[in-house]
Design brief:
This is DUF4044 domain-containing protein. By secondary structure, the protein is mostly helical. It has 1 helix and no strands.
Length: 40
């Protein structure tokens, strides 16, 4: 792959992917913690 400047759309997509990953991991961690009864 040749290196070229990322377009605005690619930047937005990249940020959205990271948000989805973080949200997924966060919900998994929160689910594990709440199931252990620490949060509730």
């Amino acid at each position: 792959m040749e290196k070229k400047k990322k377009s605005t759309f690619q930047k937005i997509t990249n940020v959205f992917v990271w948000i989805m990953i973080i949200a997924t991991v966060g919900s998994l961690v929160f689910g594990a913690i709440s199931s252990l009864g620490i949060m509730g």
